[in-house]
């Protein structure tokens, strides 16, 4: 049986708030692209073409949400996307699609441009 755990709405809203800025959304997608190694702040600033003062504001917000982890690497800070949390938020959004009507939900999945392997597996109904 598929293990299912659901995120709390409060945690989800914190994540969505962190991604509500186009800069933070671009920042997070850049870190996902560079997973699992991540990037140091200077590399991020260069890739996104934003000043380091603006970047540190956005990094602070996205790190506080839990979507990005940071670790010291000598005198640099390396930022890494929290991929399991990203997948949890996708699961949170899709877990109860079509009120557990698998046929109806499958039609939407088939119509989506998203690779089916990237979508969460459906949870078994609790009986």
Overview in brief:
The protein has 127 residues and is mostly helical. 52% of the residues lie in helices and 11% in strands.
Q: How many structural domains does the protein architecture include? A: 2
**In the CATH hierarchy, what is the superfamily of the largest domain?**
Winged helix-like DNA-binding domain superfamily/Winged helix DNA-binding domain
How far apart are the first and last residues' alpha carbons, in Å?
Answer: 13 Å
- By helix and strand content, what is the structural category? mainly alpha
Which ranges are low-confidence, i.e. pLDDT below 50, for 5 or more consecutive residues?
Answer: none
Class of the largest domain, according to the CATH hierarchy? Mainly Alpha
Overall, the morphology is elongated
Q: What share of residues are in beta strands?
A: 5-15%
Q: Strand count, sense and closure of the main sheet?
A: 3 strands, antiparallel
Q: Any guess at the CATH architecture of the largest domain?
A: Orthogonal Bundle
Radius of gyration computed on alpha carbons: 17 Å
Describe this structure in words.
The protein is mostly helical. It has 2 domains: 9-82, Arc Repressor Mutant, subunit A (Orthogonal Bundle), CATH 1.10.10; 85-118, no CATH class. The protein is 52% helix and 11% strand. It contains 6 helices and 3 strands, in the order ααβααββαα. Strand 2 (68-73) and strand 3 form a beta hairpin. Helix 1 (9-18) packs antiparallel against helix 4 (52-65) and helix 2 (22-33) packs across helix 4 (52-65).
């Amino acid at each position: 049986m598929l293990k299912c755990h659901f995120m709390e709405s409060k945690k989800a809203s914190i994540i969505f708030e962190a991604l509500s800025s186009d800069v933070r959304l671009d920042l997070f997608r850049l870190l996902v692209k560079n997973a699992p190694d991540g990037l140091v702040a200077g590399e991020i600033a260069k890739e996104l073409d934003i000043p380091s003062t603006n970047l540190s504001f956005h990094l602070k917000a996205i790190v506080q949400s839990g979507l990005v982890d940071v670790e010291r690497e000598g005198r640099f800070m390396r930022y890494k996307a929290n991929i399991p949390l990203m997948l949890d938020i996708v699961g949170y959004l899709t877990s109860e699609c079509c009120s557990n009507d698998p046929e109806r939900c499958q039609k939407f999945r088939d119509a989506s441009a998203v690779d089916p392997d990237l979508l969460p597996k459906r949870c078994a109904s609790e009986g």
